Structure formats: structure tokens, C-alpha cells
Amino acid sequence: QKQPDAEVSCSDSKEQRVAFKSLALACMELVGESLLKERLDMDTLEVLGLVHSKTIFNQKYVKTKTKLYYKQQKFNLFREESEGYSKLIAELGHERRPEMTPVSMLDNIKSLIGRFNLDPNRVLGVTLEAFKSYPNMKDFFLRLLEHYPCEPNTFVNILGFNFHSYQHADVMRCPPTPSSLYNMAAQLLHRRLVKLKDIYPHLGPADSKMEEFYKSVMEDAKSKEKKVTVVSLMTSAEKTDEEAEKEAESQKEKELYREKILCLEANQKLGVCHSLLGIGDLDLAFAIMDMLPPYLVVWSPPVSRLLCSLVHSAIEPLYHSRCEPRAAKRSTTTTMQSLAEGGGVLSCSRFEDLLKQAFKILFRLGPYAYTDPTLIAKLLRVGKAFFKEHLNSSSNGELPSQDREDVFSNFISVLDEVVLPSLSLMHCNVGMAEEVWGMVKHLSYEVRYQLFGHWKNSSYDLHPEMMQVRASTVARGKYIMKRLTKDNVKPSGRQIGKLTHSSPGIIFDYVLSQIQRFDNFIIPVVDSIKYLTPLAYDMLAYCIIEALGNPQKERLKHEDTNISTWLQGLAIFSANVFKKYPIELTGLLQYVANQLKAGKSFDLLVLKEVVQKMSGIEISEEMTNSQLEALGGGELLKAEGGYFAQVRNTKKSSQRLREALVDTNLSLPLCLLMAQQRDCIIFREGNSRHLKLVCNLYDHCMDILVQFGGFLSAHMSHEEYSRWVPALTVLVQEFHIPADVAFFMLRPIISNAISVRFSELDKSNKSDSKHESKSEKKAKVAQQEVHYVSAFKEVLKMYVESVKHLHPPKVWEEINPNFYMMFWSLSLYDLYVPTGRYDEEIAKANQANQALESDMELNSSKRKKEQERNQALIGKLQEERQRQEDNNRLVLKVLREEKDTWCSAKVTKNRTITHFLQLCVFPRCCFSAADAIYCAKFVHMMHSLHTPNFSTLLFFDRVFSDISYTVACCTENEVRRYGRFLGALLEVVSRWHAKESVYQQECSNTPGFISMMRSSSSEKQYLDYENFRHITFKWHFKLTKSLVVCLESKDYLQIRNSLIVLTKILPHYPKVYHLSIALEKRVEKLMEEEKEKRPDLYVLATGYAGMLKAHKHNLVNEADFHNREERVKAQQSDADTKLPVSVRSHESLESRSISKSKSKSADSTPQRDDGGKTSSKNSDRENSKKRKAEDASKNSDSGDHESTKEKSSKAERKRDRSSEDTSSEGNAKKRKDSPESVSTAGESEPKSSEPKNSESKSSESKNSESKNSEPKSETKEKEKKLHGVKVNKKDVTKTPPIPVASSSSTKPPPSHKDKDKTSDNSGEAASKGGSSVNKPERKRDRSAEKELLETAKDPKRRKESPISSPAMEKRVLKVNKKEPKQPSPLPSKATGTKKDEAKKRTSTGTKGRTVK
Fold first, then answer.
1. Which of 487, 511, 713, 1325 makes an SS bond possible with 748, Cβ 3.0 to 4.6 Å?
2. 3-state SS class at 806
3. How far apart are alpha carbons 1316 and 1296 in whole angstroms?
């Protein structure tokens, strides 16, 4: 309930009224008298004394109220005289006399108002009408109005009344507003007689309608664009006529409405803005633009044209002074002249003057500057002149002023907001595109790509016209791409070119999306874009980089093991485009470098394709042997015969790629990043990616590094290449680059340095060779060799000191740093001259000339040109071959002189070969295919030069002993290269094995084939031909063992790598029939298992199986491969002198030459007791001769003949063996508890056990020899063993992987094979003492192996015996639980009888008793 106020409620109480009166009087000073009169009633006011009389006050209040609301003014109606207005109009419209001034005119008007009782407001209205009628007298009327006595709102009311008379609720029905009214309003606004905020509400249409109109236009443009991208199932023919008519009518209505609302006669706000721009009042015009939606004002063509005219008048002086040709005539339009005369905008004579008004107008104009192409052309030329001047001053080191920097940034903004969007609205303006490129090309690629990105991705969304252009461009692009084929490339290319002149980003975006889906579009699209402008080509480069960096696309396929097809297609397209067209490569190269910095190696595919296409350098592991041979020649031979695709027309493109790398200094960063990324892939991708993908990425990175480095060394000058490659220590220590990559980068520098130094030394030796005699020529050649040797030594000496920092000092005690440096500094070009490939290419060129002569279709000029080219090619190839032969001769001279210092006699051969394999051969043979062949050639060269203290036999034995570990640790490409390396070595071995004459010529009496050296004298025994054949069979057998282990491992990488190795070495392995059968059975089994599980393995296995079947005609039986009977005879004849007939451990041979006492004890060391020859003859007479030869081959060192010489030394052997019994048992016990025995016994994880084994060997070798008897005894055993004896399963499966980590001890730790021999000898000694336990088991194992060999040779028994049956595997494990065996490649079904086993046991026991 509403409470009554105090004044009413206390009216009856006198006391309360008195109190209220006192309160009101007290508040009068605070509140005020006027507020009390307003709020209190009449009685209270009278009591308070504020009103003298309530009655009089009420009367006065009623009169005032009536006068305000009800009384009508009758002044104009009754007392005005029309004559006064006629005189006023005559006065305003009379011709102006010179003495007539606005002040005198105003006095006349005042007299007329007074004389004829005229209304002053109507007089002002008549004056304004006169102002509209006489626009040429604007200055007179403006001064008159400035002195006219009236309130400011009077002008607003009169103008508002005039504007309202031309408005209507329906815009389509609005009467046209006269332009004179706009001009008058603009003049009044400009003179500040009227304020914009006062007159703006009187202008129509309302802002709300303008906002609705803007939104409707934008939505309509978006809907039209959406219709283009959405596939509609209903065609236009299926629509009804009514629907089509409705759509046409609605579209027509929208267009009419837009024309009407943007017309100046209907839109008063646009009209006033246009008039303000016409008089040059930019501030008020821009204020009106800011009140409306963006760019809505410039949608009106008159406004946009007027803005263009203003810019014309502003830049005209600057354009004529800086850009216009001298012969051009200056011409100005009428609008420009009027603007210049009226002082609308400030003219610009300097670049800094553009900051005042010109740039502001351009930013308001936006893309609608397309209405005046002349203005854009002038603006671009002015900008080009400024960029040249600005960039030249910056390059000279001058610091630009702040105004200059502001002008530069404003020009960039003009390009971004005005020029490039305007180009999109110009239809196919090629000249304008060239003008834009003339200005843009002076900017860096970063700024250009930023402009292109905003133009393509943002500008089209801001303007409805550009949305429509984008929709029409996409629709037209779809139409063209649907019909693009290789047959209509030219017409389609012209249509694509027209689209790229205005909207290159839109059409390229669609084209690239199609290429990513369909790779068959690549070649037609590349051929069709030859009609593009330079601006379009630059935009294409940006679009390619943008597509490559799209974060929404997955780089891998769904199975996460292969790179996506879209990336592959985009990489191929990029390479073809950059090769064929002159596009800047800097952005693409920098993108790849940035991706590598981020640890992403997928985009290296783009660099690979670009280098391959632009330079012709191809990287492929599937190259043929002839191609690989050509890679060992010069650059011309590589280009002609080293790649699958013929390298043609790459001179210009390779030069552009080289210039891009040199200008941006990206050569070194890319090489370093690829080298670092290669090693980081394993750690960054290993946990999250599939192992197959990690290996592929590793190979991918490695291949591109080799390709990129080859391009740099081939196409850069020697000075440039030497300048950007750092020193060896910097590469390895600061950039953490592996040694193989560092030497790969430095090898061209070393070769060039040697050539430069050689040319300096050989200057005096140059003379006319035509008039020289033979003796003079020989002397000249000898002098050249001397100079080259000295140059080679000088250059290598500079690097030797830096090489020593790559490895610990102890390493260089066992391998010569000069030898290490020489190995890494040479290349296949230095060691080998592919004469056959040179002859083939020369023959091809000659055949091409003959074919040209018979080709009558060619015209004579073209035929002559091709013949001259072929003849020039022949001459160049001959010159290149001669240069390589001379280089090869000089390099061999250096090697002959240096070979004596390579391998020191103080270091055991075993350790030298170990470090040679670890630090040289294995890192380089897996680097590239050419390096793999180089390693094999280098080893063969060392053998051919008779390098002292280098054992070729030991090297081959270390390589072929057990390749399973090396194969399992390689990637796919690495194992291909390793297979080529093995194939090259096997080729050499096969050539020696095939003919005795070749063996005697190349291997007999060479240091590499020393089998034994007597301790008492310098007499050496070399390996004869038959024993070499035995060793070759042993190597083939061990290769079979290792590869079968990998094939049966169930591991994907091991199976794949073993199949690849088998494919690479197939021409030279297998050679023996039963080994081939073993491999064939395993491969067939693998094909059955992997057909559904892993199809890629199935394909590899199927391919190898077919190749193996085609190779069967080259297979031989074991008896034909090596003469086993001769081996038995050799063993029997050499048993008296104790000379081994096979390969020995060269470490033990050297130790024998050092100490005679050790050699004597080694000679008396008990051998493995597999049954003496006499006892074996007695027990195995019923067996075949092959069985006897096999037993004898296993016991070639332990012969116990009853010959006379043997009887004479029997007492001495008894004494030595009895002395070794105790030591053998102790050593066996130690080995049982040692880490070596643990690692040997472990079968489940042979890889993990090997490091432990090497560590234990290293730790044992550090102890003194007196305290550790095991290495001594094992070394002595090595001295007595034959290295080429046919070994059991333990010899193959437990051989440590190569390379073996060497320790710092003077003697290398014993291998698994030697430990097996030592344990056998310990068993023999124990059997002599009656305490042997493992002896019968070992005999059973050997008898089983003999039966397996017989089964392999007998076809009937082979059919009945499955290869590697589970029963046989269990049997092998049961025979020797301590050292379980890996499955044998031979048929494993044992066929021995109990009677044979009893005979063997009897023979063993007999031998033991005889020895006692």
C-alpha cells in the first residue's frame, strides 16, 4: 500500500505542519528555491513565502500553459506580405555587382524582413534554396550564411526538412534527391555551419536498413559459393519452369534493390559522403564511412570512382617525376583538374607525402580500386620505384628514416588490401599481373608469401564480389580439369592461364587437390601451366608449400608403415614444376630445412624429387651392375650410364638449384640437418612408430643425404664447396656428425686439394708431348708420379692430426691413422676404371650416329646437329677415360709406396683386421652402393699389392663366419649394400676357386695367404689351392648356416634382410647343390607361412625362389667343389711335421714367432679327440671313402698315424699331453663359471649375450698372462688348430658378430670357435684320465652330422628326411644342453645305427688307452 507523503498526512495537525514548515525552510538553502516550487503544492509555497499569492500564481500558470500548448502564432499568416519574398528572391538571384558584399546583402535582407514582416526562418529557407540554385556562388552564400543571425539548429531543421521531403518508407519509391542539396549540405558541413552528428539522423535510409542490406548481400554471396562446392543430384533441366522463373525473378529483384539502395539519389548518406569527397573534406567523409558497414560506401560506383580520382590527383606529380617515361605526354582528366584546382587533396612530390592523404584514401577504397586500372598501374610503378630506392639504400648500409619505414610498410599494406584483391576483380588482365610482379619481385619471399597467404585465405571472405569470383573460378576450374588430357594440353592450358591471371591462388588450390588424389594428372597439369605469368608461378610455389605444410593431412597411410600417396604425388609434381619453369626455390628449400629442425623427415621426399629432376642425380638401390659400374667413372659417364632415366636438359635447372642454395646459404644447414636427423630418427620415432617405418625413414634420410651431397660436389665450384664445408673436427665435435658423413662431405675437398697441389708441383713438367721420345715420356711419367705422391702425402698430412681426435688414442696403436685417412679419402673413381662401360657408351653414340644417317625423316640440319652432339660426346668420354686412367695410375703409385706402413708387425693381424672392419669397412660398405663396391675393391687392392702383415684369408673368414648378426641389424637399403659388398667378395673368391692357374698367379706366395710361419726360422708356408677350396666350402657352409638362422627366426626384419642378401649374392652363392637344396626348402616353407600374413615377404621369397631355380644349372656337387680325398692325403702327409694345411689363427702364429717356449708348448697341446686316424680307419672300414674324408677333415690337426716319424716323436707327445691334462681341466672349470661360457650356452638371446662376452673378454685380457692361463691355453690351441676344418653347429652359430669390439689387451680374446676347440681338448684330456662325461655325446652329435651330410647327398634319403624337423632340433638340444644348437641348413634326420655308434665309442676308448 502506498504511503502518503508528509505534506498531505500532516495537513490536519497544526504541530506537524509547523514542524514540516521549519524543515522545508531549513532545506531551502540546500535544495534550492526552484526545486521546491516544482515539487510542493500551492498552499505550502504560500505558507513558506515562496509565492506571494496562491490565486495570482494559479492564474499565471494557466495562461502560460495555454500559451505554450494551445495558442497559435498568427504572425506569418496575417502580417507577411508576398511582395517581400519577391523582392528577397530578386535580391538573392540578382547579378552580383563588385561592390555587393555578403554583409551588404545581409543588411538588405534584414530591411526586407522588417519592412514586409517576413519570417526570418522562411527567409533563411529561401536563401538556402538560392544557394542550391547558384552553386557557382558558393563562396558568397557561405559567407552570407556565416553572418546570418540565427540559432545553429535552424540550419539543421531546414536541411532535415528538405531531406525528409525526399524520403519514403519503401526505398524503391523514394523520389530522387537532387545533387544540389547534397552539395549544399556538404558545404555547410565543411564550413562547420552544421554538425554531422546533428544532420546524420535526418538522412535516409536508416542505419538498420543499411545493416540488413549488407548482411543480405554477404549471405547471398556465400550461398552462391556454396552451391558451387556442393554436388547437386538435381540438374537444371529437372527443375520446373515455375521454380526457374521464381529464382530468376527473385534474383532480378535483389539486383534492382541493390542498384537502388546504392544509388546516390536514393541513399542520402552516400550522396552527402560523395559530396564531401568532392570538396575534399576527407575527415567528414571517412566519418560517414565508419558509421556504415565496411566498404559499403565504395560499393557505389560513383563513390569508388571519385576516390580513385582523388588518388590520381595526389600521386600525379610524383608519378611524372619518378616513373613516367620522358617521351610520354602528360595528360590529366577533367575531374583531376577540378580536384587540383579546388584543392581537394594534397599533391605528393615526395614519397613521404603519400602518408598524408593518399594511403588513407587507398585503404578506404580497398579492392574496389579495380574500377580504375590506370590508377593501379600508376600506383604499382610508384611503388616499384620506391622499392628500388629503398632496397638499394638498405644494401648500401644506409639507415632509412622513420618516414621511409612508414612508407614501406604502407606500400606493403596497399598491396595486401588494395592491389591484389583488385586484381582478382579484374577479368584476365595480363598486363596488370605483370605490373604487380614488377613491384612484388623486389620483396623477399617471406613478405611475398605472407601477402599471397592473406590474399588467398582472407581477402575473398571480406567482399561479396570476391566471393562470387572465387565461386566462378572454382566452377570453371572443375570444368577444365574434368576435360584435361595429354591430348588437349594446349587449349586447356590457355584456359587455366586465363584463370590464373586474376585468381591464381584459387585455381591452384583446386588443381593441387586433384593432383593429391590422382597422380596421373601430374604430367598433363605440368605441361598445361606454361601460359602462366611470373606472379602466377610464384603463387604456385606458395600454394605447393602451403599444401605440404597442411597440418590436417596425415603423412602416413593408415597402416603407418608407408608415406601417404598425396605427399608422394605432391613431391613429384613439385619437382617437375620447379625443373620446367623458372620458379624461385628458396621458399621450398627453407621449408624443408624448417621441417628438419622440427625433427620431421617426411618432407625430405620433396627435396629428393627436386634434386633428382633438376640435376638428374638418381638414388636407387635397384640399379643394375652396369649402372653401378658406371658410377665408378667420371661425371659424364655417370650421367650417361649410371641412372635409369637419361640425364638431358638439366644444365639450366641444376644451375638454378645451385644458385638458390648458394644465395640462401642452405647447403651446409641441409647437409648437417639430414646427417643429424638420420641418427635422431631411431630415438625419436623408435618408440612410437613401426620398426619397418623407422628403417624406411632412416634409409630415406640417408639416400637423400648422399644424393644432395653428390649434387653439391658435382655442380659447385671447388672454391665454393671448400668455403662452406667446415673442418673435420668441427663437423664431428661441434655438429656431432658421424665420421662416415663427415668424410663423405670432405672427400671432394681432399681430392681437389691433391689435384691443386699436384698441378703446382707439375708445372715445370708440362711440355709438348708430340715431339717427345719414349724415354722422355717415361721420365715425364715418373716425374709426375713423384709429384703426385708428394702432393698426396702433403694433403693427407694436414688431416691426419684431426683424424686422431675421432677415436681414443689406444685405437691408433692398432691401426695406422695414415691408412685410416687413406681409406676414407679415396673413392671408387680412384681404384677402378670402368673401361667396359666407357666402351659401351662410346659404342652407343656410334650406333646413334649410324641410325641418324639412315633416318631420312629428319631434316639435314637437325641430323647434323645430333651427329655433332654424339661425336662431341664420344670425344668427351674418351678424354674422361684417359683422365681416370692417369688418376688411377697415380693413386696406385701412392698406394704401393704407402702399403708397407699400413699394418704394423707389432700388432696382431687379428686386431688389425678387427679395427679395419669396425672403423672402415662396415661403416662405409653400408653408406652407399658405390661405397660397398669400393670396400671390396680396396680389400682386393690390398691383397694385390702384397700388403705386409695383412691376412686376406683372415679378413674373408671374419666376414663370412657369421653374417646373421650383421644382417639382423641393418635397414633395408643397408642390407642391399652389404649384400653387394658380400657379392663382390664372393666374386673374387669364386674366381680364385674356379681355376688353379688364377689362384697360383694371384694368391700363391702372397702375404695374405700365409697359413703358417715357423718359429725357428723365417720360413713361411702358404695355403695351397686344394686347401683354399676346402676353406671356400667352409665359408659357403657358414653363410648357409647364418642365413637359415635368419630365415627361421620369425622376425620380419631378419627374414626380409636375409632374402635381400641372398638375392644380391645369388650369382656367386650358392655353388654347392645340397646347400642350395637347404635354402630352397627353407624359402618354400617361408612362402607357405607368409603368403597370407606378410605379403611383402611372400613376394621377396617368391622372387628369390624363381631366381634360385634359374640358377640351378650352375650348381655342382660337393665332391666337384672341393676334393675331399686330397684333403685327407694332405692331412696324413702333414701329420708328421705338424704343419697345418688350412687357415690358422694369425694371432697365434705371431705369438709363436715371439716366444719359442710358447710355440713348443703349443705344439704339444692336446688336440680335440674325435678318434685317431688309425682307430678311425679300423672302426669305419665299412663306411664309404667320403665318410672317412669327413672324419679326417674334422680331425686334421689331431692325426695319430703309426708312421715311423710319428713313432719317433711319440714319447715327446705323451709328455706334453700329460702336462696339459691338469691345465685343461682347470681351464674348463673356469670357463664353466666365466661369462664366456654363459654367453655361449645361451641360445634364446644370442644378440644380447654377445656384448657380455666381449666385455668379459676385455676384462680378462687386462689381467697379467701369468695369472690367467685360459687365454694362453686357447691361444696355444689356435696355433695347433686348422682354421679351415669343417665345423659343427657350434662353430657357426656361436661365432661372434662382426665387428667385434676390441679390448686394450695385446692378445685378442678367443672366439666361440676357439673356445669350443679348447673345451673339446679338455674333454679329451679328461677322457684320458677317465673322467670325461661329454665325450660320447659329442661323438653322437658328429655322427648325426655325418648322417645329415649323407642324407643331403642321397636323393632317396633326402626325400624321406624333412629339413630342420622339430624332432631333430629337440635331439640336438638334448645332445648338448650346455650349448644348444641353432637349426642346421642340412637335412637333419640321423640314419646312424647302434653298431656304428658302438664302433665309434670303441675307437675312442682305444685311442685313449693308446695315448696312456
1. 713
2. coil
3. 13
Mean pLDDT of the chain: 77
- d(CA 921, CA 981) in angstroms, rounded, equals 10
Neighbours of 74 (CB within 10 A): 8
Side-chain half-sphere exposure of 1018, counting CA atoms within 13 A: 1
295-322 pLDDT, tens per residue? 999 999 999 999 999 999 999 999 988 8
Whole-number Å distance between alpha carbons of 583 and 504: 15
Region for 192 from its dihedrals, namely left if φ exceeds 0, alpha if ψ lies in -120 to 50, beta otherwise? left
pLDDT at 29: 77
Report pLDDT for 325.
64
What pTM value is reported for the model? 0.73
**Separation of alpha carbons 673 and 709, rounded Å:** 12
Indicate the pLDDT class of residue 1125, thresholds 50, 70 and 90.
low
Residue 613 to residue 523: CA distance in whole angstroms: 13
Residue 1343: pLDDT over 60: no
Rounded CA-CA distance 1343/1349 in Å is: 10
What's the confidence (pLDDT) of residue 1012?
66
Give CA 869 to chain center in angstroms. Answer: 37
Confidence of residue 1138 (pLDDT cuts 50, 70, 90): very low
Q: Assign 779 a pLDDT band (cuts: 50, 70, 90).
A: confident
Q: Which three cell numbers stand for residue 1232?
A: 664353466
Q: Which residues contact 1120 (CB under 8 A, 6 or more apart)?
A: none
More confident: 860 or 1085: 1085
Planar angle of CA 1240, 1242, 1245, nearest 5 degrees: 120
CA 1167/CA 1164 separation, integer angstroms? 9
- Report the pLDDT value the prediction gives residue 170, as an integer from 0 to 100: 80
| Maximum distance among all Cα pairs of the chain, rounded to whole angstroms | 172
The three-point CA angle 640-641-647 to 5° equals: 40
CA angle 535, 540, 541 (to 5 degrees): 100
* pLDDT tens digits along 730-744: 999 999 999 999 999
Whether the link from the prior residue into 205 is cis, omega within 30° of 0, is yes
Handedness of CA 927, 930, 936, 938 (dihedral sign): negative
Rounding to the nearest 10 degrees, give the CA dihedral for residues 228, 234, 240, 241: 30
Q: Is the pLDDT higher at 1106 or at 1403? A: 1106
Is residue 926 within 8 A of residue 978, CB to CB? The reply is yes
Query: Which residue in the block uniquely carries the three cell numbers 705371431?
Result: 1150
Higher pLDDT, 74 or 71: 71
Query: Which cell goes with 467?
Result: 566471393
Q: What angle do CA 327, 333, 338 make, to 5 degrees?
A: 130
Query: E strands within 868-956?
Result: none
Between CA 827 and CA 1164 the distance in angstroms is: 48
Nearest Cα to 1379, choosing from 1278, 1243, 1249, 1277?
Answer: 1243
C-alpha cell at 946: 702384397
pLDDT, residue 547, reads: 94
Rounded Cα distance between 361 and 298, Å, is 11
Of 106, 120, 275, the residue nearest 184 (C-alpha): 275
Rounded Cα gap, residues 760 and 791, in angstroms: 9
917 secondary structure, DSSP code: I
Angle, CA 17 vertex, CA 16 and CA 18 arms, to 5°: 90
The SS3 assignment for 1012 reads strand
Work out the average pLDDT over 1069-1077.
92
User: Are the beta carbons of 132 and 184 closer than 8 angstroms?
Assistant: yes
Half-sphere exposure of 496 toward its Cβ, with a 13 Å CA cutoff? 30
Count of other CB atoms within 10 angstroms of residue 49: 10
At 1385, the amino acid letter reads: P
Please give the Cα distance from 1154 to 1080 (Å, whole number).
48
Confidence label for 952 from pLDDT (cuts 50, 70 and 90): very high
Host H or E run for residue 1087: helix 1073-1090
